[in-house]
Amino acid sequence: MVGFNSFDVEKDVKGNYKSADLFIVPKGKLYVDLVEEILDVFEEEKLELKIDESSMPLPYYQAMEIPLEVFEEKYGIEDEKHINRKKVLELCEELFSLGFFDIGFKGKNVSFFVDHNGFINVKPEKIEKKDFQDKIEGLGEKDD
């Protein structure tokens, strides 16, 4: 788990350096890149948001007591059943920068769930087992 040994310090500067929030990000951008690769490989364009409110990590969801409707309003989700891939990636980028988050998406070919421990669990939906296996095995392989 090399990725968890590398952290970035993010800075959120306020009011011309009147204050600055510093926080540690566990390479959330790498997870966004992997989600984007999953969307590309499995040709997903529209997805359905899946959030397990009972398993949200304490710091974000339960501690702030944010109901799902408020979450959807905050992130501009008008229809949780038809979120385009650009919105999925924007949502993932913001949420992963806050720390890992129990959030998932369901598409026509696969569904995937990002666990707050950093795992991305991908399950086939309407795709043949062999095709699913081939695409999963090809993830992360780049032609350099």
Total beta strands: 7
Instruction: Supply the helix-strand structural class.
Output: alpha+beta
Percent of sequence in beta strands: 25-35%
Give the overall pLDDT as a whole number: 76
- Characterize the biggest β-sheet: 5 strands, antiparallel
Helix content: 25-40%
Distance, first to last CA: 23 Å
Given the C-alpha coordinates, what overall shape results? globular
What does the model show?
The protein is 34% helix and 25% strand. The protein is of the alpha+beta class. The strands form 2 sheets. The chain has a 5-stranded antiparallel sheet with strand order 4-3-5-6-7. It has a two-stranded antiparallel ribbon with strand order 1-2. Helix 1 packs antiparallel against helix 4 (85-97). The longest helix has 14 residues, at 28-41.
